[in-house]
Amino acid sequence: MQAKGMNTLDTTSNGKPSSNPEAIKSSNCVLRAIQNHYEIPVKVKSEAKIEQEKWLFGSCVRFNRWICLPAAFMIQFCGGSLYTWSVFNKSIDTLIYGENTNTAPIVFYVAIGFYGISAAISGPWLERHGPRQACLLGASIFFLGNLVTALALYLKLMWLVFLGFGAICGPGLGISYISPVSALQKWFPDQRGLGAGFATCGFGAGSIVISKVQIPLMDAVGLPLTFVILGLVYLTLMTTAAFILRTPPPNYEVVGSSLPVTTTESPSKSITNSTELRFEEIKHPVEEKRNMSLIEALTSTEFKIMVVMFIGDISYGLILASRLSNIITDVFGKTPEEAATVVSVNGALNFVGRLSFSIISDYVGRKNCFLVMLTCQVVSLGCFSIMTNTNAFWPFFISIMFVTATYGGCMGVIPAFLTDKFGPENIGACHGIIIFGWAAAGVIEGLTFTCIFNSLVASGIPSTDPIVYNANAWWLFGCACVGWIAINFVKPTNQDIKLYSCIKRFFCCRKTFKVNDINNCRL
To answer: What are 186-237's pLDDT values in tens digits?
Structure first.
């Protein structure tokens, strides 16, 4: 099936608007400008290009869609270094100012902001030029940012640190993040959860491993050279993985599926449907493609509700968990070494959540996964002040592990959820805007947390008093409740509905309920 562009305004023979969703243009100038920015013209793949992309590294290894999974993991693994910035906070402040001024942590928020902006606006460029070129561009910008940061530390200029890591590394990571996500959603229409999980779980794994390397490397070669060496490692790994990424050929479909993948590419006239373009046996039915234009997707009530749901789910994990080390030492009186261990376990659960919830969502449904994740957030935040006031460390430790896993699960499931709802042709734009929402929440909520925390400390309340954290936990609890309410207004996917019917049949106590009924519940 040849993909359609968004370049014409068609009408049917009776004068009514065409059913082609790409033909619909908004009368609002702002929305029309957004639509024009995200228009994806049909890209022609020549017969030679299709033949070339059947092989890796010349003609040494035949390409298979499963090879994209480790490539995506490697790209996100390097991107996980964003979460390890806090390792450098005190060292950077001490190097530049001679003391800890708490200026370096603000660089992280700047990077998050530029990260989200670049992810939101670079989607069209990604879809036009493909994941390989987008990832190469992102890796190059990220490497340049690391070099500028190293120069800034050598010259002891904090404004240059903000420019290097915040304004340059941030956009590079944003472009690199969405590149494998878009590619895997096209290659795995039958297992979108699996594709989304592998496309995002590397972030969690990278934050664990890289944080353990940074301090020894910094002690050995100094702070500026640390960014140079790590930048070179990131560039090498990301560019190698980028050459593996590609989009499916025209008319690509998975054997067993009646729905081909919608792509922005069309074959040259000499290309016909070929059995060589059919791949592995399907394991899950493909969600029915939504006949929806991009502007309809972005302005739909369901997309707006999903944005609210997503922000409600990520707020606790993104904001409060970033202060986890301080909470462990200040409130519960643990040693810095014990706090570091908890943070490492926390990073591991982030990785596990991204992968496990994404795979599980292929079986039980995306909405059901978000219901479970948001429920965990609400319960944990509702009990937060009780656990801190009573110094109940182990219940707190268990709750924060669940929260971190659900935060990772939210990041892993959302690409597949968006693809199910709005189609693979709209995933680049929709996911980019979702990531922008994540970044905006990180900046606004992070600064809000810091403002409340500093105000309470300035009023004379010591940082070891649980109230400085409890006060922030309550407004985060409100965010999670809003997200929980929002998910109940999202229409269930096919997987969700099938699980509902299986549960209903099970509890109706029908005598005819057999083992085969349970097997039929699996997607």
So the answer is: 888 878 888 888 878 888 788 788 888 888 899 899 999 999 999 999 999 9
Q: What's the pLDDT score for residue 43?
A: 62
pLDDT digits (tens, 9 = 90+) for 59-96: 777 888 888 888 999 998 998 888 888 788 888 988 99
Give the count of beta carbons closer than 10 Å to the beta carbon of residue 471: 16
Euclidean distance between CA atoms 210 and 168, whole angstroms: 20
pTM greater than 0.85 (yes/no): no
| Dihedral angle of Cα 215, 219, 222, 227, to the nearest 10 degrees | -20
- CA distance readout (Å), 130 to 181, 476, 506: 12, 38, 46
Tell me the backbone φ, ψ of residue 4, rounded to 5 degrees.
-105, 145
Sole residue written with tokens 């054997």? 255
452 is written with which tokens?
Answer: 């409340």
Centre a 10 Å sphere on the Cβ of residue 511 and count the other Cβ atoms it contains.
Answer: 5
Report how far residue 439's alpha carbon sits from residue 480's, in angstroms, rounded to the nearest whole number: 17
Nearest in space to 247 (alpha carbons), one of 368, 80, 132, 87: 132
Give the H or E element holding residue 150: helix 123-155
Q: What is the 3-state secondary structure (H, E, C) of 277-333?
A: HEEEECCCCCCCCCCCCHHHHHHCHHHHHHHHHHHHHHHHHHHHHHHHHHHHHHCCC
Question: Cβ distance 404 to 319 under 8 Å?
Answer: no
Secondary structure of residue 136 in the 3-state scheme: helix
Taking CA atoms, 114 is separated from 74, 172, 356, 502, in Å, by 22, 9, 29, 45
**8-state DSSP, 392:** -
Rounded CA-CA distance 367/113 in Å is 28
CA distance 277 to 187: 12
Residues 288 and 420: their CA atoms lie apart, in Å, by: 7
Question: How many Å apart are CA 286 and CA 303, to the nearest integer?
Answer: 20
Q: How does DSSP classify residue 1?
A: -
Burial class of residue 144, CB neighbours in 10 A (0-12, 13-18, 19+): middle
Contacts of 474 (CB under 8 A, 6+ apart): 381, 385
Pick the closest to residue 176 from 206, 214, 147, 151 (CA basis): 206
